[in-house]
Amino acid sequence: MRAVVMHAPGDVRVDTLDKPTIVEPTDAIIRVTAACICGSDLWPFRGIEEVNQPTPMGHEYIGVVDEVGDEVGDIEVGDFVVGSFVASDNTCEICQAGFQSRCIHQVMMGSIGTQADYARIPLADGTLVKVFGEPTPEQTRSLLAASDVLGTGWFAAVAAEAGPGKSVAVVGDGAVGLLAILAAKQLGADRIIAMSRHADRQALAKKFGATDIVEERGKVGVAKIKELTGGYGAHSTVEAVGTQESMLQAIGATRPGGHVGYVGVSHGVELDGLDLFFATVSLLGGPAPVRRFLPELVDLIMTDQIDPGIVFDLEVPIEDAAEGYKAMDERRATKVLLTL
Ligand SMILES: [Zn+2]
Fold first, then answer.
1. The dihedral of CA 9, 12, 18, 19: what is its sign?
2. pLDDT grade, residue 104 (50/70/90)?
3. I want to staple 87 with a disulfide (CB 3.0 to 4.6 A). Which of 120, 122, 148, 237 is the partner?
4. How many angstroms is it from 108 CA to the middle of ligand 1?
């Protein structure tokens, strides 16, 4: 089968690998019908994360179940399914509390790779969510977004306690930040301030529900958020980048008593204890428990209440995956869909 493999930073190829087989009786094999390239795939592509050996890529996926292990009960061959970037049993105490991304039996899908014709999905009953009905091409795109970027943006907005009567600031205008805006709007936030300096992304932010745009960054950006919120700062702030600057911007933009939902994968972030002490904000973040939200998100998508799939602005066949990585790296594309 075809699979996207990273051989070294900047060196992405489509190799021929063996089709995966059932390893554990709780596994399923799916035929991937669409996959995509994640912002986090750019960390190794840029050499910020090491690539020690040829590594199969990808952790976002939708597809059709091709084979199931003996202990899989709820998922059947032929089901059209969507899953998240962490396989989880959905039964342990952590999962039951809604934090499936840290399931005690978690398997990171990135360690398996889903930018391929087929993928092995561990803990299939807990991980996969069935989609009923025949999705349109638009709905298919949106279901793929639900697999990671929408689910992650949604978690960030929930963790930041976005809701009616709240002002929400969003740091980061990648796919996750943009979809956190969509989530904040769905959750009923009054005011949504997008921090972005790219015209095309500002336009998409407004389409998803942003009421204000702040182009400034750092201390000036924080001052601008305060100015827009009566001098207080936002009630809720989403951090969707993962750098020192973005994290400090998020905490600084939040009023005392407010909440920060941080979902940008942290790279070199160090927080000063005393500054954090006096910030007086709640911090909740980490790998998003997308599985918690998937049934609701699938329903919103299949009833056309949300259209997160418009975040994909480049579609390439899997053979051209290298071009897709390059386009995202050079910021020519926000989010790339790989067709199979
Ligand atoms: Zn669990």
1. positive
2. very high
3. 122
4. 13
